C-alpha cells in the first residue's frame, strides 16, 4: 500500500477508536469494562504484561523490552516485579518516584522511551483505553466527578476505588457549563501522545535561575484575566506544565538530581498525596508515573546531602548497570548501527564481537575465586562452558560484587569509535583490527578515564586482540579446509589402499608406471601420529579399519570419510598440519604463483559467499592471518 493509502487507513482507524459520550454513558462503559478506570501505574504494568512474559532458566523475560534492550534481564525483572507490579496493586511504592540509576549510556533513557512509546500505542488498544473529562487540559479522570461522600456507594456498585478530587477548573465547569448535572458532563476517549502533550511529558531542567516552576505546573494566562476578572479564576490559568500534561500517563524527569530544589518539592506532595499545588488553587489531584534517571556519583552526592532526606525516602532507586554478556553487547552495537547512518558500511564478521569483548572486560571486576581470570569470567557470563567451572560457580561470581557493571566502557563510546574508524578508511568496510585500533586511539581523548584505567584498558585491548587472532586463524583454516574436502577424500583413499596392502602383505601398483611398490609407511605413520597411535599399536589400528571396511561392504554400505570417527580426525589434523604451511605460504606470498593465486581466489570467494565477508575484508583477513602464521 502506498503512503497516501496508509494515511487514509490511519485516519479511519482513529475515527473507529474515537468515543464520546456523557458521564452517564461512561458509567455504562465502566459496567462492561471496569478496567478502563485503572490507575496510571496499573496501565503501565498491564502494558508490559500483555506483551508476554516468558520464564527462561528462572529469569523472567519480558517481551515488551525485546529487540531494544539487551542483557539487562535482571534489572528489568527487578523493575517490573519490585516496582510496576506492586504499584499496579496500589501498594505504596506507586507513591514513589522511580529513579533509574546507572552508568552513562547504559540504556536508562532507552527504557524510559520504550515505556513512553509503549503507552502511546497501548492507549490505542482495548485493554489500554483511557477516558477523560472532555475539554480538560489535564485529561482529568471522569470518576473525580463522583462526590466524596458517594464513593463508598460507587465502590459497592462498580468495585472501583476512586482516588483524588475534582480539579478547580472542572469544579467550576461543572457548575457553569453543566449546571451541576454530573451525568451530563462530556467524557471522551483519549490517546496518549507526547507530541500532542497528552498523558506523556518530559521535564528537563535548564538554567536554574531562569527556569520557571510554570514549566512543571502551568501558569497564569494574563491575557485572560480581563475576561475572567480574577487571577484565581481557574479559567485564567493555563494547566500546561509537564505535570499537568502527563496526568494519567507518565512524566520523564530528566537530570532530576541536577534540578533546583524548588522543583523537587512539588514532587513531594505529588508522590505522597497524589496532588500538587499550582498557582493559587486548591491542590490538584494527579495520577501519573514519574520516572527519573541519574548516574551513580550524582546519586551519591544527592543522598549525602541531609537536606534531601525527605525526598530521598520518596524515591525508589533501580540500578541499571551495563550489560555484561559479550553476545548481548554485540546485539546492542548491531542495533545502534542499524539505527545510525552507518548502516551502508560493511562491518567484517567478528569486528563487533571483539569490540564487545573489550567493553565487557572493562566492566568486569576481578574475582577472588581460585584460578579465575577475567577472560574465563567473561566466558562464563556469556553462557560458555569453561572447563572446571559450573553454574554454581557462575552464580557465586554474579553475587560476588553488588556494583559490577557500574563502570567501564559504554556503548556510545564504541559506536563513536567505530564511526571514526569508518571515516579514516577510504573504503566503507572495516574489520576487527580497525575497530580495536580506533578504540585504543580514542582512549587518549576519553574524558572520564584515569591514567590507571587507561593502562588496564590497553591491556584489555590486547586480550581482545588475542581472542580475535584465534578466531581469525580458525576462520581462514576452515575456508581452506573446505576447498580441500576433495583432498581429504583423496588422502583417505590413499591411506586405505596402503593399509589394505600392508595387512594383506601385498604390493601396490603405481597408477602411472604400473610398477610394483611397497606400502608407503611414511604416509601411513604421518596420519596415525596425528591421533597418537604408537608404532606398537599401528598394526591393530590398521586391522581394525580393514575389518570395519569389510563389515561395511557386507552390508552394502560404502566406507567413506565420515565412517570412522578417529580416522576422520586423523585425516583432518593431518590436513590442517599440511595446510598450515600452505596457508602460510599462500597468504603471505608477495608474488604468488598461478596456483597460489587460484587458491587465494577460491578462499576469498568462500569467505564472501559463506562467511559474510566482502572482498576487501576477506583480503584483509587473509593477509592478517598470513602475518600471524609467520611470526
Ligand atoms: N543494555 C542495552 N540494550 C540495548 N541498547 C543499549 C543498552 N545499553 C545501551 N544501549 C544503547 O546505547 C545508547 C545509549 O543508551 P541510553 O541513551 O539509553 O543511555 P542512558 O543510560 O540514558 O545514558 P545517559 O546517562 O548518557 O543519559 C542507546 O542507543 C541505547 O540503545
Ligand atoms: Mg539518558
UniProtKB/TrEMBL annotation:
GO MF annotations, alphabetized: kinase activity
Limits of the PrkA AAA domain: 21-371
UniProt entry keywords in alphabetical sequence: Kinase, Transferase
Stretches assigned to coiled coil: none
Entry protein name: PrkA family serine protein kinase
Species of the source: Fictibacillus fluitans
InterPro entries, A to Z: P-loop_NTPase (IPR027417), Prk_AAA (IPR013153), PrkA/YeaG (IPR016230), PrkA_C (IPR010650)
Amino acid at each position: 500500500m502506498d503512503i497516501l493509502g496508509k494515511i487514509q487507513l490511519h485516519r479511519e482507524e482513529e475515527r473507529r477508536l474515537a468515543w464520546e459520550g456523557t458521564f452517564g454513558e461512561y458509567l455504562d462503559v465502566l459496567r462492561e469494562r471496569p478496567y478502563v478506570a485503572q490507575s496510571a501505574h496499573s496501565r503501565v504494568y498491564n502494558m508490559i504484561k500483555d506483551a508476554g512474559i516468558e520464564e527462561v532458566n528462572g529469569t523472567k523475560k519480558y517481551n515488551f523490552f525485546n529487540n531494544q534492550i539487551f542483557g539487562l534481564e535482571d534489572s528489568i525483572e527487578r523493575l517490573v516485579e519490585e516496582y510496576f507490579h506492586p504499584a499496579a496493586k496500589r501498594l505504596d511504592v506507586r507513591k514513589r518516584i522511580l529513579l533509574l540509576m546507572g552508568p552513562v549510556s547504559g540504556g536508562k533513557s532507552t527504557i524510559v522511551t520504550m515505556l513512553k512509546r509503549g503507552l502511546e500505542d497501548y492507549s490505542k488498544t482495548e485493554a489500554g483505553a483511557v477516558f477523560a473529562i472532555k475539554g480538560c487540559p489535564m485529561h482529568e479522570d471522569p470518576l473525580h466527578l463522583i462526590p466524596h461522600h458517594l464513593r463508598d456507594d460507587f465502590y459497592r456498585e462498580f468495585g472501583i476505588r476512586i482516588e483524588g478530587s475534582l480539579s478547580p477548573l472542572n469544579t467550576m465547569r461543572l457548575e457553569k457549563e453543566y449546571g451541576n448535572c454530573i451525568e451530563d458532563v462530556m467524557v471522551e476517549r483519549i490517546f496518549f501522545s507526547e507530541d500532542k502533550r497528552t498523558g506523556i511529558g518530559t521535564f528537563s531542567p535548564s538554567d536554574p535561575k531562569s527556569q520557571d516552576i510554570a514549566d512543571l505546573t502551568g501558569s497564569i494566562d494574563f491575557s485572560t484575566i480581563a475576561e475572567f476578572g480574577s487571577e484565581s479564576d481557574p479559567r485564567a490559568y493555563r494547566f500546561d506544565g509537564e505535570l499537568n500534561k502527563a496526568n494519567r500517563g507518565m512524566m520523564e524527569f530528566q537530570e532530576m538530581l541536577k534540578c533546583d530544589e524548588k522543583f523537587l518539592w512539588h514532587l513531594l506532595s505529588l508522590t505522597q498525596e497524589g496532588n500538587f499545588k499550582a498557582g493559587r488553587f486548591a491542590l490538584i489531584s494527579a495520577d501519573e508515573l514519574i520516572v527519573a534517571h541519574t548516574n551513580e556519583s550524582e546519586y551519591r552526592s544527592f543522598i549525602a546531602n541531609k537536606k534531601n532526606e525527605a525526598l530521598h525516602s520518596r524515591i525508589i532507586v533501580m540500578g541499571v548497570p551495563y550489560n555484561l554478556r559479550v553476545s548481548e553487547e554485540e546485539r546492542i552495537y548491531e542495533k545502534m548501527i542499524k539505527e545510525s547512518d552507518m548502516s551502508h558500511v560493511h562491518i567484517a564478521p567478528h569486528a563487533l564481537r571483539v569490540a564487545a569483548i573489550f567493553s565487557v572486560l572493562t566492566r568486569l571486576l576481578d574475582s577472588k575465586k581460585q584460578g579465575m581470570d577475567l577472560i574465563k569470567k567473561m566466558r562464563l557470563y556469556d553462557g560458555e562452558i569453561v572447563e572446571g567451572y559450573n553454574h554454581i560457580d557462575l552464580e557465586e561470581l554474579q553475587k560476588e560484587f553488588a556494583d559490577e557493571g557500574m563502570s567501564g566502557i559504554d556503548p556510545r563510546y564504541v559506536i563513536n569509535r567505530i564511526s571514526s574508524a569508518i571515516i579514516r578508511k577510504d573504503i566503507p568496510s572495516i574489520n576487527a583490527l580497525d575497530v580495536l585500533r580506533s578504540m585504543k586511539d580514542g582512549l587518549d581523548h576519553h574524558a572520564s578515564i584515569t591514567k590507571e584505567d587507561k593502562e588496564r584498558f590497553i591491556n584489555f585491548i590486547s586480550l581482545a586482540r588475542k581472542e580475535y587472532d584465534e578466531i581469525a586463524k580458525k576462520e581462514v583454516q576452515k575456508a581452506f579446509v573446505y576447498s580441500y574436502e576433495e583432498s581429504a577424500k583423496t588422502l583417505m583413499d590413499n591411506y586405505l589402499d596402503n593399509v589394505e596392502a600392508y595387512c594383506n602383505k601385498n604390493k601396490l601398483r603405481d597408477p602411472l608406471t604400473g610398477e610394483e611398490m611397497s606400502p608407503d609407511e611414511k604416509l601411513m605413520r604421518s596420519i596415525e601420529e596425528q591421533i597418537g597411535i604408537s608404532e606398537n599399536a599401528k598394526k591393530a589400528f590398521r586391522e581394525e579399519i580393514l575389518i570395519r571396511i569389510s563389515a561395511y561392504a557386507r552390508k552394502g554400505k560404502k566406507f567413506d570419510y565420515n565412517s570412522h570417527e578417529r580416522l576422520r580426525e586423523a585425516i583432518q589434523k593431518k590436513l590442517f598440519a599440511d595446510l598450515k604451511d600452505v596457508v602460510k605460504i599462500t597468504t603471505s606470498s608477495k608474488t604468488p604463483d598461478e596456483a597460489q593465486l587460484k587458491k587465494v581466489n577460491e578462499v576469498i570467494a568462500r569467505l564472501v559467499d559463506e562467511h559474510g565477508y566482502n572482498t576487501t575484508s576477506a583480503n584483509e583477513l587473509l593477509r592478517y592471518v598470513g602475518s600471524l602464521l609467520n611470526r
